[in-house]
Design a protein that fits this description.
With about 475 residues, the chain is α/β, with parallel strands linked by helices. A 5-stranded parallel sheet has the order 2-3-1-4-5, sandwiched between helices. A hairpin with a 2-residue loop joins β9 and β10. The structure holds 2-acetamido-2-deoxy-beta-D-glucopyranose (5 copies). One 2-acetamido-2-deoxy-beta-D-glucopyranose binds next to loops.
């Protein structure tokens, strides 16, 4: 071999070796980067905190809170936790807008681990009901888009909105006091709705700065996490860390949305008018949006972005494994063939979209896997009923052996890896076939609306309880 050839071979070997070395270095750097982020190890694993299971989620209106509620319902179901649910005479909310009282809680759903249905927050009552180590969480949304959504959703219910000529948001803001009556039924949808939901005084005048400041501070004291609807996935990452949950626990499908034709864009002067009309909500939002971003920065924005990517990827996989390739399954309510999956429609003018199940769902899935898919998209009113029924059955079966003040149930244990989010089903309970008779509140129940059809469990559409 000539010297030239030997030299070339030497150069080639050096290059390859250098590349390999660089590659290793590169991988090492990536690994270090990942190690800087909180890991996504699966439970149980030594040294990993057990999942926190006592959660109070204060559900606010028109803030993506229905999606959060569905997530919490599913977490409770797969982990055999108890969800506090309203007595039947309260509808699917805790007699909102009356101030929350433990009398509104169905006795078969006590003592609870989780509470999430709509309520008008009263701290003392809730703290008496929930275990001492309960973590309080809520969610807020940018006041402009939130008010536009409230105005559209409740335009037939809330008198303050019904009075407005042509249902025009612009007309409302030309003279809000002409249409708004602070003490009227449903007035909480027309001003400072978040403040009201959180137990505050929605009609405190803007000049009362002391009140606004004290109220923000009080919310900050009670709630460990205030999620922000505009940064929903980022908020979920914080939630996951706060509760030591797995990625699989925070997968979701968006629920209770309007069709895009029901949404209106705001004229340029409106956002400012909305903000000053809802001055308390605005103050809360600005404060907690800033605090969300401080918390995200503390976790490391790169780590947060990575987890958000993993979340979206896992979500896509889950949707595909549940509903096949024909995405999205979003339908307007009238198009949903399965009546039981139709979300409640507030009025003829607003179209709330839902999901329909593909005919194919049952193929190749166990019934519990089907159940998991169904639960991702089942509207809140129907899910509340299903949960009350299963919990009532469990209550009757086990009330004589259950410890009366069980605040630390068996810690849930996950069996799937965080990055593989196919529908892996474990510990899910089949829905009851037989009707359960509710008791405890004087109201007798109607026969069970749960039917079993073709191996698919279908809760029958509820009577609308109004809002
Ligand atoms: C939930 O309850 C079922 C039935 O009692 C049981 O088999 C399962 O292990 C429980 N799951 C968890 C996570 O505790
Ligand atoms: C909860 O706190 C109250 C008051 O501090 C205390 O009396 C009670 O024993 C606590 N309960 C539990 C389960 O820790
Ligand atoms: C309501 O709409 C009609 C038709 O679009 C219009 O003529 C009328 O001026 C509107 N009224 C108000 C108060 O905006
Ligand atoms: C929320 O806060 C972040 C960080 O301060 C800011 O960039 C963003 O514009 C805020 N979002 C809204 C909708 O106000
Ligand atoms: C069921 O799914 C298969 C593919 O998985 C598809 O070819 C078939 O057309 C589907 N059937 C119905 C009724 O949608």
């Amino acid at each position: 071999m000539s010297q030239k050839k030997i030299f070339l071979v030497f150069v080639a070997i050096s290059t390859v070796s250098l590349l390999l070395h660089q590659g290793v270095n590169f991988r090492w750097t990536m690994e270090a980067f990942h190690m800087g982020c909180p890991t996504l190890r699966s439970h149980p694993s030594p040294g990993l905190k057990p999942k926190h299971t006592n959660v109070a989620f204060l559900k606010t209106h028109k803030t993506a809170s229905t999606t959060m509620q569905n997530l919490l319902f599913r977490f409770a179901e797969w982990n055999n936790l108890t969800v506090a649910l309203p007595i039947q005479s309260c509808g699917h909310q805790f007699c909102y807008p009356r101030p929350f009282s433990s009398r509104f809680v169905h006795p078969h759903t006590m003592p609870p681990n989780i509470i999430t249905n709509h309520m008008h927050f009263t701290k003392g009552e809730l703290q008496r009901l929930m275990p001492n180590n309960t973590i309080y969480i809520t969610i807020m949304r940018e006041p402009g888009s939130m008010f536009e959504s409230l105005f559209g959703y409740y335009n037939q219910y809330c008198q303050s909105f019904r009075r407005v000529p042509n249902g025009s948001l612009e007309a409302f803001f030309q003279d809000p006091w002409r249409y708004y009556r602070p003490d009227e039924k449903d007035s909480m949808y027309a001003r400072n709705t978040v403040t009201f939901d959180l137990g505050g005084d929605k009609d405190r005048p803007p000049k009362d700065k002391v009140y606004a400041k004290a109220f923000v501070a009080e919310v900050e004291r009670v709630f460990s996490l205030v999620m922000i609807a505009e940064y929903f996935d980022e908020s979920l990452v914080l939630l996951r860390h706060l509760l030591s949950w797995d990625l699989d626990d925070i997968l979701y499908v968006k629920l209770n949305m309007r069709t895009s034709s029901s949404k209106r864009s705001l004229t340029p002067d409106l956002p400012e008018k909305i903000r000053s009309w809802n001055h308390l909500d605005t103050r809360l939002y600005d404060h907690f949006n800033a605090s969300l971003w401080r918390q995200l920065s503390a976790l490391g924005l790169a780590c947060v972005a990575r987890e958000v990517r993993l979340l979206r990827h896992a979500q896509e996989k889950l949707m595909r494994s549940c509903f096949g390739e024909r995405l999205p399954l979003v339908r307007s309510a009238a198009q949903i063939k399965n009546k039981d999956l139709r979300p409640w429609q507030p009025s003829g003018k607003v179209d709330i979209v839902g999901y329909d199940l593909p005919i194919n769902l049952s193929q190749g899935f166990s019934s519990s896997a089907q159940d998991r898919c169904l639960k991702l998209i089942i509207p809140e009113v129907q899910y509340t009923r299903v949960l009350l029924r299963t919990q009532s059955m469990r209550y009757r079966r086990g009330s004589h052996i259950r410890p009366p003040q069980q605040t630390h149930p068996q810690q849930p244990v996950r069996t799937t890896l965080p990055r593989h989010s196919q529908v892996v089903v474990h510990h899910s309970q089949p829905l009851p076939l037989a009707p359960a008779r509710e008791s405890g509140t004087g109201s007798t129940s109607t026969p069970s609306p749960v039917t079993q059809a073709q191996g698919r469990v279908i809760p029958v559409a509820p009577k609308n309880s109004g809002i």
